[in-house]
Amino acid sequence: MPNCPQCLKSFSSARRVAAHLAQPKSKCHAWQRERLGLSLHSSSLTVGSTPNSSPSLDGFHDLPACDGFDVVQPVHDAIDTFVPFGDSDFDGEEGIWNPSVAESAALLAELGQGRQIQPFSSAGEVFDTGETFLKRFELDPFSSFRRTNLYYPFSGLNDWEMANFLLRSKMSMAKIDEFLSLGSVRTLPLSFWTAKELRSRIELLPTAPRWNYRIIATSYPMKSPAILYFRDSLECIEALFNHPYYADHMMYTPFRVFTSAERVVREFSEWMSGDVAWRMQSKLPPGATLCGVILSSDKTHITNMCGGKVAHPLLISLANIKMAVRNKASSHAFLLNALMPVVEFIHPVHRICSVLEARLFHECLDIVLQPLKVAARIGRMMSDPAGNLRHCFTPLAAYILSRIQCDPNDVERYFALCKDFRLSGVAEPFWRNWPLSDPANFLTPEPLHHWYRKFWDHDVQWCKNALGAPELDFRYSVLHPIVGMRHFKDGITALKQVTGRAQRDMQRFMVAVIGGAASRDVVIAVRALMDFRYLAQAPRITSIIQDRIKATLAEFHNHKDKITEEGLRRGAESGSALNHWFIPKLELMQSVAPSISELGAPVQWSADTTEHAHIEVIKEPASTTNHQNYDTQICRYLDRVERCRLFEMATRLSALGDADDTHDQDLAVEDDGAEDDELNMADDEDAAAILKDIWSSRRSVPDFFGVTEKLRAALPGSIPHPVRTFSSGATALRVNRRPSIKRISIDKAAELFDIPDLRGALADYLSREGPHAQNFHSFGRQRRSPPGAHLPFSDLQVWYKVRLQQKSYHDSSSLEPVFTINACPPNRTWKYGRHDAAILQVDARHEWPASGLTGHTVVDVRLIMCPISPRGLRLVWDDRLLVYVRRFDIVPQRQADVDLATGLHVLKRATRASGEFLGDVLPLDQIKSYAHLVPRFGEAADNRFTSTNGFHSAQSFWLNRYFDKEFYYALSL
Predict the structure, then answer these.
(1) How far is C-alpha 21 from the geometric centre of its chain's CA atoms?
(2) Closest CA to 162 of 185, 183, 178, 144
(3) Centroid of chain to Cα 792
(4) How, if at all, do strands 380-383 and 335-340 pair?
(5) Secondary structure of the chain: what % helix, strand, coil (to 5)?
(6) How does residue 77 score in pLDDT terms, banded at 50, 70 and 90?
């Protein structure tokens, strides 16, 4: 049972502990004030206007039916009885925490060896045993029926699976009735035969946070009533905090990470690693758990044609969940907390209508977020995924509001005074009485709209004006295509409704495209902003990289005047040249570097996840409605889906536990502890697999490394040779099971792929191999074998492509998407064949990606092959995949290895003294990464270039480090 952290008195629930601590005259509440050094202070919460000022609702006949929703009345003084935290003497700055061996191992495994971790002392303590997700499932009113039938109110597993499928299939009730009326379905032993009966059974399932509604009264007339649909925000946070899927991805303590034992260089990643979380924790009682609340709100269109219906969702999440999981849409870490009313005010001044809408928005947020404000003051006893009871506080930040000296109810005069201070006219913002709430902290940098949109609105326009639209489009159209990435075959300047993904794809090539054509200062300015975006997107940023981010922005400002001097910055409508830099998104970039040390890596605040969540929580539910009263039907749909998802998780985990109990009873008494540990580990793996199956994306990233481990553990002779999937360091490669050419002679392969020295290169490879196979070969030695050298084999297997996967630069446990390296012979489309560039390791002392290009070289992959041993003879190297490559040399630039304007390496094809291209045969596993080369077009691109011949025809290339963020980090950090 949960206990009070001061008097240790036991209570029946966590709610009663929080209520006990909230009693103003209790000793425990006085103890809390004394420990924190608090001064009594009350703040009033004014919600809405007086009922007499609200418009009459008699004329509205289209109010939604609210059956199944709770009507919530306002509680104006809910927060007045609580006291806020003040500055405390306990700051934990020098606190040293001694983590357990398991905790230390987990942190070091995630952050990397060699780092020093300083967690906040006396934070995130466990006070008692709470309730796990399954324990709460057992407390359901119908749990007694589930002792004999786990799937109650359904007759069994098959009955439940059919119901789950129908309810989550987005079928209308009429379609469900039609399906259930089919003769073949009638033969099934189902417990329901109509959609209405099915939905009534769903109402008996354990519920997620319940939906409520309230009609908001205002003093100004509206075209329709303002109806707010919402759920208890604290219950939403508690549901996330207790969710078993996040058990291994939850943080409970602020921490600081240093890159070395000297603690000179800080590293910032999660929100908990920033200074804001540290300062918030220092103002909480010892042992308290900080639960940072994340809110997201943006209007989204439900329909574009039929009336232009708009919804305004408020999403809520928990900053304690690691960003790698939280930012995945499939993790469902953002819950729909409320549907804000979208209304039109009736007022002759349009700007005043906007002010009234903003005030209504903040008023609704006050209502929705009131439980979180209470919990931020007194805390709330909540159970984590493991069932540990923690004293949790839910702050957003800290802020002191300066008010305008005028009656806020006089909207016209109040707004007139606000204009002088460039204020919005909102008199009571929602954060005014939220402890530790500061707009400078919770208004975080947002990459999707602040960076990518700025690139499209401004950077692309500067480049278009510098090169001309036809030239820019032509250069994009002839770029060498990358499998899996967008190829702009018609250019970019005529694109309409450009998405964030398209803006990202354009960024991959812009610097290399304009290099040599735009003036030097313009290229530097565009490249500096590109470096800023790429560096700031890193999931882990050290204080050194933070300084580099500041330097890149300063570099842009040092060279931006050339853009205005050449008239490249022009008005969107007038087209006339602009000589000022009043760009709000550019101004917002100034706050990015300072925010890193405060809030962690900015990439975790991108709106990509929440924008995608709008599809799941708004657009898809809306598509299942009858297009009337969208809000109520969206809420009901989400309620049913969440019930189904939670019930599925609970029944599958319970069934797993029942199976384990039965298995345990069958175990012999003499089983030792080691076997028990193995069984427990297997149980954990089974539970993790169930959670992953329910909550993870169905389109998971392939895992070549996992396949490699399975193949290594396979019994000898059980897998075909050569092994098609293998790994080396941080890179894994896979070729198709069936080769593109099963058998071809060496001479025919040399002719087909245009490799005159293939036989000599193979002979040199065999001479380096010797009688025993080597694991590593160097590149670039003098050709010793003649073109007609004798070989112990005559035929080859050939593959036209190899797929390559790498581990993340910042997190070796995370896998990156797969790249395809082509090595195809000439055909009708590709006159010279389709070849891709790659990074090849040439020095065993340097590993990719940590060493960058040191110990590596850029190559053109021409042929992927495996020798076929003569019949009756097995050679030591006949199960090893080989590759014939031709090297590129880096052209030294003035005082640097890279071009100073573009920051890119300049490459040219390497040749021997005889003039032939420098090529050689090496093991395929020495290829470490895909590489993208862009022809150096010069001032004007050759109009004979196409996307299929540019790689063959160009004389020199840019090594484009911007085509992939992981590649950029390998070459830049």
Answers:
(1) 38
(2) 185
(3) 52
(4) unpaired
(5) 40, 15, 45
(6) very low
